[in-house]
Amino acid sequence: MEKWICKVCNYTHQGDEAPESCPKCGAPKGQFYRREKKNGCVMLSVLIILVILAGIVFAVVACSPAVTVDNSAVKTLDLSQYLGKWYEVARFDHKFERDMQQCTATYTLNDNGSIIVMNKGKKDGKWKTSVGKGKVTENPGVLRVSFFGPFYSDYRVMMLAPDYSYALVGGSSDDYLWILSRTPQLRKNTCDQIVREARRRGYDTEDLIWVKQTDL
Protein backbone atom coordinates (compact mmCIF):
# COMPACT_ATOMS: atom_id res chain seq x y z
CA MET A 1 0.00 0.00 0.00
CA GLU A 2 1.18 3.47 -0.92
CA LYS A 3 0.59 6.51 1.28
CA TRP A 4 -0.63 9.72 -0.34
CA ILE A 5 -0.48 13.07 1.49
CA CYS A 6 -2.72 16.06 0.74
CA LYS A 7 -0.58 19.17 0.24
CA VAL A 8 -3.39 21.38 1.49
CA CYS A 9 -4.47 19.75 4.77
CA ASN A 10 -1.96 16.88 5.22
CA TYR A 11 -4.69 14.27 5.09
CA THR A 12 -3.17 10.79 4.56
CA HIS A 13 -4.73 8.32 2.15
CA GLN A 14 -3.61 4.71 1.73
CA GLY A 15 -4.08 3.04 -1.61
CA ASP A 16 -2.50 2.21 -4.94
CA GLU A 17 -3.16 5.78 -6.11
CA ALA A 18 -4.35 9.12 -4.76
CA PRO A 19 -8.13 9.73 -4.36
CA GLU A 20 -9.97 11.86 -6.92
CA SER A 21 -10.45 14.50 -4.23
CA CYS A 22 -9.50 14.96 -0.60
CA PRO A 23 -12.35 13.82 1.67
CA LYS A 24 -11.21 16.32 4.28
CA CYS A 25 -10.69 19.57 2.36
CA GLY A 26 -11.91 18.74 -1.15
CA ALA A 27 -8.53 19.36 -2.83
CA PRO A 28 -8.24 17.62 -6.24
CA LYS A 29 -6.16 14.55 -6.92
CA GLY A 30 -3.28 16.66 -8.24
CA GLN A 31 -2.74 18.11 -4.76
CA PHE A 32 -1.64 14.72 -3.38
CA TYR A 33 1.95 13.52 -3.27
CA ARG A 34 3.23 10.05 -2.53
CA ARG A 35 5.19 9.55 0.68
CA GLU A 36 8.51 7.96 -0.18
CA LYS A 37 9.43 4.74 1.61
CA LYS A 38 12.14 5.03 4.23
CA ASN A 39 14.30 2.16 3.05
CA GLY A 40 17.05 4.57 2.15
CA CYS A 41 17.01 6.07 5.64
CA VAL A 42 17.03 2.64 7.20
CA MET A 43 20.00 1.58 5.12
CA LEU A 44 21.80 4.80 6.03
CA SER A 45 21.12 4.19 9.72
CA VAL A 46 22.44 0.65 9.46
CA LEU A 47 25.55 1.92 7.68
CA ILE A 48 26.15 4.53 10.39
CA ILE A 49 25.79 1.88 13.11
CA LEU A 50 28.25 -0.41 11.32
CA VAL A 51 30.77 2.41 11.01
CA ILE A 52 30.44 3.19 14.73
CA LEU A 53 30.89 -0.48 15.68
CA ALA A 54 33.92 -0.76 13.43
CA GLY A 55 35.39 2.30 15.13
CA ILE A 56 34.81 0.76 18.57
CA VAL A 57 36.48 -2.50 17.54
CA PHE A 58 39.42 -0.60 16.07
CA ALA A 59 39.80 1.46 19.26
CA VAL A 60 39.74 -1.64 21.45
CA VAL A 61 42.34 -3.38 19.31
CA ALA A 62 44.51 -0.29 19.09
CA CYS A 63 44.38 0.26 22.85
CA SER A 64 45.01 -3.37 23.79
CA PRO A 65 48.37 -3.74 25.52
CA ALA A 66 51.05 -5.56 23.59
CA VAL A 67 51.93 -8.97 24.97
CA THR A 68 55.50 -8.74 26.29
CA VAL A 69 55.58 -12.14 28.00
CA ASP A 70 55.30 -15.77 27.03
CA ASN A 71 51.71 -16.53 28.04
CA SER A 72 51.39 -19.72 26.02
CA ALA A 73 49.05 -22.25 27.61
CA VAL A 74 49.50 -25.91 28.35
CA LYS A 75 48.66 -28.21 25.45
CA THR A 76 46.47 -30.60 27.41
CA LEU A 77 43.99 -29.97 30.21
CA ASP A 78 41.34 -32.31 31.58
CA LEU A 79 38.51 -29.93 32.45
CA SER A 80 36.84 -32.47 34.74
CA GLN A 81 40.01 -32.54 36.85
CA TYR A 82 40.46 -28.77 36.74
CA LEU A 83 36.96 -28.00 38.00
CA GLY A 84 36.38 -27.44 41.69
CA LYS A 85 37.84 -25.16 44.31
CA TRP A 86 41.21 -23.41 44.05
CA TYR A 87 42.94 -21.27 46.67
CA GLU A 88 44.72 -18.13 45.53
CA VAL A 89 48.31 -18.27 46.74
CA ALA A 90 49.63 -15.19 44.93
CA ARG A 91 48.50 -12.69 42.31
CA PHE A 92 49.30 -9.46 40.53
CA ASP A 93 47.39 -6.47 41.88
CA HIS A 94 44.24 -5.42 40.04
CA LYS A 95 41.24 -3.35 41.05
CA PHE A 96 38.63 -6.11 41.23
CA GLU A 97 40.61 -8.00 43.92
CA ARG A 98 42.42 -5.09 45.54
CA ASP A 99 43.06 -5.52 49.29
CA MET A 100 41.32 -8.90 49.32
CA GLN A 101 42.62 -11.87 51.29
CA GLN A 102 41.46 -15.49 51.71
CA CYS A 103 40.60 -15.56 48.02
CA THR A 104 39.26 -18.66 46.32
CA ALA A 105 37.93 -19.54 42.88
CA THR A 106 35.44 -22.33 42.30
CA TYR A 107 34.59 -23.67 38.85
CA THR A 108 31.40 -25.67 38.21
CA LEU A 109 30.26 -27.16 34.91
CA ASN A 110 26.75 -26.41 33.64
CA ASP A 111 24.69 -28.97 31.73
CA ASN A 112 25.13 -26.92 28.54
CA GLY A 113 28.93 -27.08 28.75
CA SER A 114 29.46 -23.56 30.08
CA ILE A 115 31.25 -22.95 33.38
CA ILE A 116 30.10 -21.10 36.50
CA VAL A 117 33.01 -19.11 37.95
CA MET A 118 32.61 -18.06 41.59
CA ASN A 119 35.34 -15.88 43.09
CA LYS A 120 35.27 -15.20 46.82
CA GLY A 121 37.46 -13.14 49.13
CA LYS A 122 37.48 -11.11 52.32
CA LYS A 123 37.94 -7.35 52.37
CA ASP A 124 37.66 -5.12 55.44
CA GLY A 125 36.39 -8.10 57.40
CA LYS A 126 33.52 -8.83 55.01
CA TRP A 127 33.17 -11.62 52.47
CA LYS A 128 32.62 -10.58 48.87
CA THR A 129 31.56 -12.90 46.07
CA SER A 130 31.59 -12.41 42.31
CA VAL A 131 29.93 -14.86 39.94
CA GLY A 132 30.88 -15.02 36.29
CA LYS A 133 30.75 -17.46 33.42
CA GLY A 134 33.38 -19.27 31.42
CA LYS A 135 33.59 -21.23 28.21
CA VAL A 136 36.09 -23.58 26.63
CA THR A 137 38.02 -22.81 23.46
CA GLU A 138 39.76 -24.83 20.77
CA ASN A 139 42.90 -24.66 22.92
CA PRO A 140 42.35 -26.91 25.98
CA GLY A 141 44.58 -24.71 28.15
CA VAL A 142 42.70 -21.49 27.35
CA LEU A 143 39.30 -20.60 28.77
CA ARG A 144 37.31 -17.42 28.20
CA VAL A 145 35.82 -15.86 31.34
CA SER A 146 33.37 -12.99 31.76
CA PHE A 147 32.22 -11.07 34.83
CA PHE A 148 31.01 -8.04 32.84
CA GLY A 149 28.18 -8.90 30.48
CA PRO A 150 29.23 -9.90 26.97
CA PHE A 151 32.93 -9.09 27.42
CA TYR A 152 35.21 -12.12 27.82
CA SER A 153 38.88 -12.26 28.79
CA ASP A 154 41.53 -14.93 28.40
CA TYR A 155 42.16 -17.35 31.25
CA ARG A 156 45.40 -19.09 30.27
CA VAL A 157 46.65 -22.09 32.26
CA MET A 158 50.40 -21.80 31.66
CA MET A 159 51.69 -24.35 34.18
CA LEU A 160 49.84 -27.25 35.74
CA ALA A 161 50.92 -29.90 38.22
CA PRO A 162 50.56 -33.49 36.92
CA ASP A 163 48.09 -34.18 39.74
CA TYR A 164 46.31 -30.82 39.30
CA SER A 165 47.43 -29.69 42.74
CA TYR A 166 48.68 -26.26 41.59
CA ALA A 167 48.49 -24.01 38.54
CA LEU A 168 50.04 -20.86 37.12
CA VAL A 169 47.42 -18.78 35.31
CA GLY A 170 47.80 -15.69 33.13
CA GLY A 171 45.68 -13.48 30.93
CA SER A 172 45.87 -11.76 27.57
CA SER A 173 48.72 -9.48 28.70
CA ASP A 174 51.41 -9.32 31.37
CA ASP A 175 49.03 -7.47 33.73
CA TYR A 176 47.48 -10.65 35.10
CA LEU A 177 49.09 -13.54 36.95
CA TRP A 178 47.84 -15.98 39.57
CA ILE A 179 49.34 -18.88 41.47
CA LEU A 180 46.57 -21.28 42.46
CA SER A 181 46.56 -24.32 44.73
CA ARG A 182 44.13 -26.99 45.84
CA THR A 183 45.24 -26.31 49.41
CA PRO A 184 45.47 -22.99 51.29
CA GLN A 185 49.28 -23.13 51.27
CA LEU A 186 51.98 -24.53 49.00
CA ARG A 187 55.40 -25.83 50.00
CA LYS A 188 58.14 -23.23 49.59
CA ASN A 189 60.07 -25.30 47.07
CA THR A 190 56.89 -25.66 44.97
CA CYS A 191 56.26 -21.90 45.12
CA ASP A 192 59.87 -21.24 44.12
CA GLN A 193 59.50 -23.57 41.14
CA ILE A 194 56.34 -21.79 39.96
CA VAL A 195 57.89 -18.35 40.42
CA ARG A 196 60.95 -19.39 38.42
CA GLU A 197 58.67 -20.49 35.57
CA ALA A 198 56.80 -17.17 35.65
CA ARG A 199 60.08 -15.27 35.65
CA ARG A 200 61.34 -17.35 32.72
CA ARG A 201 58.27 -16.33 30.78
CA GLY A 202 59.06 -12.66 31.35
CA TYR A 203 56.73 -11.78 34.23
CA ASP A 204 57.98 -9.38 36.91
CA THR A 205 57.50 -11.70 39.87
CA GLU A 206 58.57 -8.95 42.30
CA ASP A 207 55.04 -7.59 41.83
CA LEU A 208 53.36 -10.72 43.19
CA ILE A 209 51.08 -10.23 46.19
CA TRP A 210 51.11 -13.24 48.52
CA VAL A 211 47.59 -13.91 49.71
CA LYS A 212 46.75 -14.72 53.33
CA GLN A 213 44.36 -17.64 53.65
CA THR A 214 43.67 -17.40 57.37
CA ASP A 215 42.61 -14.60 59.71
CA LEU A 216 45.36 -13.28 61.96
Quick summary:
The chain is of the alpha+beta class. The protein contains three helices and twelve strands, in the order E-E-E-H-H-E-E-E-E-E-E-E-E-H-E. The protein has an eight-stranded antiparallel β-barrel.
CATH topology of the largest domain: Lipocalin
Helix content: 10-25%
Oligomeric grouping of the chains: single chain
Overall form: elongated
User: How would you classify the helix and strand content by structural class?
Assistant: alpha+beta
How many strands appear in the DSSP assignment?
A: 12
Spatial separation of the terminal alpha carbons: 78 Å
Reported for the largest beta sheet, the result is: 8 strands, antiparallel, barrel
Order of helices and strands: EEEHHEEEEEEEEHE
Strand content: 35-45%
Q: What labels describe this entry?
A:
alpha+beta, Rubrerythrin, domain 2, eight-stranded antiparallel barrel
Fold and architecture overview:
The longest helix is centred in the N-terminal third of the chain and has 25 residues, at 39-63. The protein has 3 helices and 12 strands; from the N terminus they run E-E-E-H-H-E-E-E-E-E-E-E-E-H-E. It has helices spanning 39-63, 79-82, 188-200; strands spanning 2-6, 12-15, 32-34, 84-91, 101-109, 115-123, 126-136, 142-148, 151-160, 166-170, 177-181, 209-210. The chain folds into 2 domains: 2-62, Rubrerythrin, domain 2 (Single Sheet), CATH 2.20.28; 79-210, Calycin beta-barrel core domain (Lipocalin, Beta Barrel), CATH 2.40.128.20. The chain is an alpha+beta fold and 216 residues long. A hairpin with a 5-residue loop joins strand 5 and strand 6 (115-123). It is 19% helix and 36% strand. It has an 8-stranded antiparallel β-barrel. The protein has a 3-stranded antiparallel sheet with strand order 2-1-3, with no helix packed on it. The model has no long low-confidence stretch (mean pLDDT 87).
